[in-house]
Every structure is written in C-alpha cells, then in structure tokens.
Amino acid sequence: MADPMSAALDIQRRALEEMTDATETAAVLDERLETMGDVEVGQTPADVVYEENKLELLHYDAEAAGIDVPEDEQEKVPILLVFALINKPYILDLQPDRSVVRRLLEAGHDVYMIDWNEPSRLDQHLTLDDYVNRYIENSVDVVRERSGQDAINLLGYCMGGTMSTMYAALNPEKVNALGLLAAGLYFEESGGVLEMWGEEEYYDPAAVTDAVGNVPADFLDVGFALMDPIDNYVTKYVRFAENVDNEEFVKNFARMEQWLDEGIDVAGTTYTQFLEKIYQGNELYENELTLDDEHVDIENIDMPVIQILGEYDHLVPPAASKPFNDVIPSEDTHIIEYSTGHIGLSVSSSTHEDVWPEVAEWFSERSQVEADEAEESVAGDTAEESAEADERDTETAEASPGVETVDGIGPTYAERLQAAGIETVEDLAESDPETVAEAAEAPVGRVKDWFETIE
Fold this sequence. Notes:
Layout: H1 4-38, E1 46-52, E2 55-60, E3 79-82, H2 100-106, E4 111-115, H3 128-147, E5 152-157, H4 159-170, E6 175-181, H5 193-197, H6 205-212, H7 217-225, H8 229-242, H9 247-261, H10 268-280, E7 290-291, E8 294-295, E9 305-310, E10 333-338, H11 344-347, H12 349-354, H13 356-365, H14 368-379, H15 383-399, H16 411-419, H17 425-429, H18 433-440, H19 444-454
Parallel strand pairs: 3-4, 3-5, 5-6, 6-9, 9-10
Antiparallel strand pairs: 1-2, 2-4, 7-8
C-alpha cells in the first residue's frame, strides 16, 4: 500500500508543475495573440492582367518574388491555376515555404491564377456554364494570347479541378496538360461523407438556394467542420494551447485560421447545378453532362492528365477521383496519392518536399514539344497579317469602343464577333441578339445580357 504522505507530496508536486506551466503560458499568450494578428498571406507578387465581373486573373512575377531562374530553364507553356468557388485561393500561396505558386515559379513555370472573389446578390443566377464557358474560357484565352501559346496547362483544385475537367472536355485544343488536385470526379459509392450527405433522397440544394439566393460561406463552413467535429472544434485548439510558446506553430495556425474564416459565398444556381449534376447525378463521370445544351464529352480528354490526391482526404477521398482516369481516352495519366488530407496537399511541409517538385517536373516534361511548336506557329505570322490587324485596330478605335470592352465579352467571343464584322460597340448595338449569338457561338440569353449592358 502506497505511503499516504508520499502520495500527497506527489499530487502537490504535479499541481505546482501545472501552475508553473500555466503561468509561463499566460506570460507569452498576449505576445502570441499579437503575432496571430500580424501574419501575412498570399505574399508572392502578382499583377491583375484581366478582370471580368468579380473575377481577377493574377499573373505572378518571379523576378519580383526574388526567384531567379535561368532563361534556358524557363518554361514556355504557362500554368493557369483554377481554384474552387469556395474560400480564397491564397491557400495555394499561404506562406513562402508552403506556397504552390512559388514551387512552380522556382521550377521555371509561368504561373497565372483565377481569383473568383465573392459573388454579389446580382450574381446568384450565374451558372456552371457561365463559370466554365465564360470565365475560364476568357481567362484561358488571355493567358494564351499573353504567352503566344495555342494551348496552356491547367491545374484545378477541388471544385476548380472539376470545372477544369469540364473545360478541357469542351476545349481540348486549348489544354496542353491537365492537373487535378483533389478534384471530385466520381460519385457512386465512393465513400465520401459529402456524397452521402448530398444524396438526392436526403438533400435538395434548390430548397436552400430558393430561400437564400447565394449559399452563405458560414453555411458551408459549418457543414465542412461537422464532417470531423472533434478535430475542428476540440483537437486543434488543444494543439494550439500545447504549442502556444512555439512562435512558428502559432504563425502557421493563424494563417490557416485566417483562410478558414474568409469563406466565399457560392452563386446559388451554380451550387444547385453542381450538387444535382455532379454529386447526385454523377453526370460528368457517366459522360452525360451538358452545359447550356452543349455536351461535355469526356471522350475529348486525350491530353496528359495528372491527379494529386490526399490519402486521408475526407472531403474528396481518392475513390472519388481515381476511377475517372479509366473512362477518359488519354494514354498519359498519372496519379500521386500522398499521406495527407485535402488542405494538406497544398500547405503541408512534406508535400512541398515530396509532391510539388514531382508535379512541376511532370508539367515540364509535357510542355517542351508543344512549346516548340507554338513558337514556330507564332513566328509564322506574316507581316501582312500583322499590318492588317494594326489597321483594323486603328479603325475600330477611331469609330467606337471595341466589343471586347463590353462586360461578358472576352477574347474568344470578341474574336468571333470581329470575324463576323461586329467589331465595335456600335456594330453590336445595330445588330440583333440572334445574329450576334450565331456569330459568337454563344447562348442567346447571354447575348441579351450584353445588349442590356450597352443600353
């Protein structure tokens, strides 16, 4: 039997140790809270090179970021990062040592990224077709024009990966290689919690959007957090308390919390379509998806495809992605499945050591031949064609603003309209929606929006 006096002394000793630890923690807590308020995110310098509605297309500046890559190691085919519509995209540029953007720049890639920003109440009726065939399409064309490449590389994250897949199926000639980072592509008993929660039997997304319009970020955040409530509401705060004296840990924690707190509302119609068509209908995998009556034919995805997956991803488990490679015709597919979760794919220190160098090299190996061909194509433009283009631009500028100045008319639509003789806003106003829709190969409903803009 233990000595009562010894037991009492042991209890007293442990109590004193805990009091000492609590006192030391309290002494640094104010300092750590100040540290949390001072952290910076998205630090890689970038220029906004295109804007449409809320969208901003960012082009990252390697030189301004202090990244010096020899000219002969700089890739000609750029990479366009397409993030999800939920949360801000700086998770791909969280901090210098955990920045996907910087890893790609360091490998010699020319990097662009779409920042969707937050939709307004007026944007609640934006559709998947708007995001894929308007916003992504126009952004791709800007990158193509700026780089002089016929086809560019896409790297989509989560929902952005799913939309990038749709775009690649619709525009295979413009996509050199397709990267999919934790992209949801297959929803037929894939084991994902979101798939089960979103089953048609239990959930009607339209009931939500009919009530609130755009889906609030808080609504989505709580849903995601409840998928792992112990970790999200208890464990991570215990870890914070245990590491509050570690300044680097506190900084990393603060950056992640800032990103999690800055959620983005999702356009209501797009949310409904995504849930009904992709999750509930599994239409992309089944090759039955249409956007504005246009078939998203995955049989067109014959370019190289790489999937980067998290073994412990509870949002988009590997089983919701890997089967897709079996139903596309591409003969060059690759899967990297790493021991991390959904967010860890972009921010964990180990993925930046083990995964992203491999991804960067994969893109490099599949860009060389295409880059050489594109350079020859661009160099083949005749002086006569350039002179005609300059003359046309001058005449257009003198007569009336060009059609590309109209909100919603990006480079692709502008090029088609100009080829049909509709070069200026004045030309557009003098036409009728049906004629313009035929010339631009655009839905009549979208064209009517252009006319409302110029009225």
